[in-house]
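Q: I have two molecules that I believe assemble together. Could you output structure tokens for the complex as a whole instead of separate predictions?
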Amino acid sequence: MTFKEVGRGLILLEPVVEGEAEVYPLALRILDISGKRIGFLDNSKERADEILAVIEELLAERFEFDEVVRHRKRYYTKSAPPELIDELAERCQLVVTAVGG
Amino acid sequence: MQTVALRSRRIEAADHFEAVELFFTRGWTDGFPIVPPTEERVEAMLQTLDRDPGEVVGIMAPRFGKATLEKIAINAVMAGCEPMFFPVVVAAIEAIADDDFNLNGVQCTTHVAAPLLIINGPVRQALEINAGANCFGQGFRANATIGRAVRLCMINIGGGLPGVTDKATFGHPGKYTYCVAENEEASPWEPLHVERGFRPEQSTVTVFAAEAPHNVNDHASQGARGILTTVADTMATMGNNNMYKRGEMAVVIGPEHAATIAAEGWSKQDVKTFLFQEARRPVRELTRSGEYYGEVTWEKYWPRWIDRNDPSALIPVVNSPEDILVFVAGGTVGRFSLIIPGWGDHGTRAVTRVIPDLGSCSDGTCHA
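A: Yes, here they are, computed for all two components at once.
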């Protein structure tokens, strides 16, 4: 089909797709993190592990945790696999994650 | 085919020129004027595939927009595609939306990477997709508009917006369009898609997250070893992502080079093995600067079998010969090849998809 004028007054179709975000309520804030099960999710960007290690150390000086779960994503450019998210949600009451880089 | 009502929101424009300006204003273009997507043009595009326009071909990051056939068709019209190009665009979107390609990363990275589309099979002749002289350049509607349609989908469906979600420091001109056919006729070896497990008579698109091509000029070498030594040296540079971040790299052998190499009995596997062996730099050079992070680079990226205590030990630019995608393209005059570095091992691999059969075509429209 070659280009041709279709006359005055065009009806056009929008090319964009809107994102469809599900809205979740925020989880209740934990006011006292002593005795809780805590997770650390390293996004695998350079030195994220060092930052999280320092944070874990500082928290451990102040609080005792029931359980500490540590995970590292394989790639920082991809979402964490659903099974990893599910495991953290199942096992931990709060999770500290390093993002960006 | 039964006409199915199109679901996209309608917009009005007084005329063609107002439509072009409107799309610029809304940020729906790649910076070039588009072809206004009227209902008639979009329906003509969809008629090449006898499928529901609401069918979701893939989810496109980072917006995670649903790439329906309808939305892809709208963007294909905007790009200037002929309707018969549509199945190629659809197959390419399927491929880049595959988890193995990691569209999220490719769209958002600070790196230059853009999807390179490599077309194989009979579709190349049917649609006149250039595999020969100037194949990475301008002049052929199929190359120009198929690649452009994919980028417009990445913008409008995937939400890849420069400076907002697309964080590329530079980008490269392939982000306008980056689509070539393999010159299977000039190649002495099996085509890329056959190597990747498809039948010669199948038409496929392989997508690869790629930097811009870098020329390899070697008119002097008269043998395989000489030519491929020049190619290998050009591959093994400190600045490309492969050297420090591994992953795949593409090498495009020009027809004159291919003929010389094959005349000495070298197979494609010989080429890949040689390049893997020769495209290397010593530890002492790669650890003095470059994208070197000390222990992290050794642990996460460089192969375990490199002796890190030997400054002369050679580190290959890729982890194995299989990480080098070799295909033949370009004109038959000029002793050149190309190297095309990839994005590195960031969870991206080249992905190949079959292009649906065009069936019969007449008057510029095709029906599957």
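A: One point stands out. The radius of gyration of chain B is 21 Å.
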